[in-house]
Amino acid sequence: MNGNAWIIRPCGLLQRDGAMLWMRYHYNGQERYNLPGGNLEAGEEMGRGLAREFDEEMGLKVTVGALLGSIQTQAAGRDVLHLLFAVTANGEPRLNPAETKALELVWLNLEEATAYPLYPIIPAATLARLFQGQGIEGGHLGLLQQPWF
Question: What total number of domains does the chain contain?
Fold first, then answer.
């Protein structure tokens, strides 16, 4: 690490009917699918920050459940720690373009998710565990090379 503060990014795994919710973005001519979530505000507790992101970006009230694990990546020379939480919700998410640059919300099954560029990057075997409601084996995947466009 270069001395810059870490970025802590809680993200939520919301599943329904065998699919997981992702946010589709388009950067420099490339698509990317992000787990819903975002950066914390100063002094914000992780669960509250994650619930705030779902509410702001999708108008969806969520209950933040168990921590399923963590993944470390890098962005713009800074380390990013993604904390993956199980979330549940009632209602349908609706994209709020005033709060996000995402193009749309998409439900992807495991086969679809393994075919797309994801943020954070998640290896196929780990993604399969998450789709089964299991946590990341060992709790933390370590530093993964996140492709950027």
Answer: 1
Between CA 90 and CA 128 the distance in angstroms is 24
Reduced to 3 states, what is the DSSP secondary structure of residue 93?
coil
Please, what is the average pLDDT of the chain? 94
- pTM for this predicted structure: 0.93
Q: Rounded CA gap, 35 and 33, in Å?
A: 7
Residues in the chain: 149
pLDDT score for 1: 42
Q: Quick one: which of 124, 120, 112 has its CA closest to 11?
A: 120
Does 2 map to a domain?
no
CATH number for the domain that contains residue 80:
3.90.79.10
Assigned token pair, 139:
């709790």
Let me know: does 122 contact 36? Beta carbons within 8 Å: no
> Residue 45 sits in which domain range?
7-143
149 touches 30 (CB < 8 A): yes
Q: Give the bridge partners for 26, in sequence order.
A: 31
Residues of the chain predicted below pLDDT 70: 1-3, 149
Inside any domain, residue 148: no
Segments in 42-145 forming alpha helices (H) = 46-58, 110-115, 124-131
